[in-house]
User: What shape does this take?
Amino acid sequence: MHLPRNHGFSHPRSSEITPEAVYAARRDWLRQIALAAAGSTLSTWAARDALATATTPALSGVRSTVAGAQTMEKPTDRGDATGYNNFYEFGTDKSDPAEHAQTLRTQPWVVTVEGEVKSPRRFDLDALMKLAALEERIYRLRCVEGWSMVIPWLGFSLSHLIKAAQPTGNAKFVQFVTLADAQQMPGLGSRVLAWPYVEALRMDEAMHPLAMLVFGMYGQRLPPQNGAPLRLAVPWKYGFKSAKSIVQIRFLAQQPVTSWERAAPSEYGFYSNVNPQVDHPRWSQASERRIGEDGLFAKKRPTLMFNGYEAQVGALYAGMDLKRFY
Ligand code: MTE
Assistant: This one.
């Protein structure tokens, strides 16, 4: 990896980490040192990225007209967006997903839609992709750890799927359950999170046109490390709300507990809206480092309220105390 390794993220307190997780982290670290010593980290990575890019099928979409779905900012280099990832099912190191996720089997892929819906359904990926025209949207992704990227996604508003599912009047939340297959995902051996990784949105958040079901990025299908074959992109929330490799979408009457809330409730709330005024208990959220421009002395950028999407989504939270509902 050619990116600085420490972006200010602190892993969960050591008391929350099992000996296996500690052991795995140390093993990964030793492997990195071994690779670096062999002088092969960069070339191996570059070669792997070139191969992955060449073998990922192309995908295209129309330019989105959804308000806020375009930004004039220059997209992050694809290599950075596919090489510096959080996908704990494949390990907790930023380079683990690119290294270990390539064997993820994304075909066949079935997504079940269930819970408080008039007609529960099973979609295969092709059927799901046909629910609406694919659009290209360029979103900022702000990770809770203090870094950000600008990514051209391909997909459509989640609201298309919600309308097709016909939720009942009881449906107040939408939960996203992701794949947890220990055979394919070496990170599941670690107890750093409870598996499967689950996330959720309030119904009106999920219906907001900016909340996106994503199938591709940079003109291609999603690579495994970015959540193939299907993930969320919720640009006004911290990156961890954007669940990867979704297999189940459940409509619920009650607010569910998410993976990160369960792991550290005082640090990660249900809403997790990007908010420069509400610091994480262990670090500030007031500024961010844009991946790709982060030389050691590069100035950080100020983080914007709702990640810069306040005009579009601010009304969803009118009257809410965002310090309390973090
Ligand atoms: N989804 C799953 N299933 N597992 C994860 O560990 N990490 C989240 C989110 N979705 C994660 C996940 C976090 S912390 C971030 S910042 C984004 O994915 C990163 O997405 P990216 O790697 O495409 O930038």
Notes: Residues 1-20 have pLDDT under 50 and may be disordered. The pocket of MTE is lined by residues 85-89, 141, 143, 178, 197, 226, 239-240, 242-245 (CB under 6 Å).
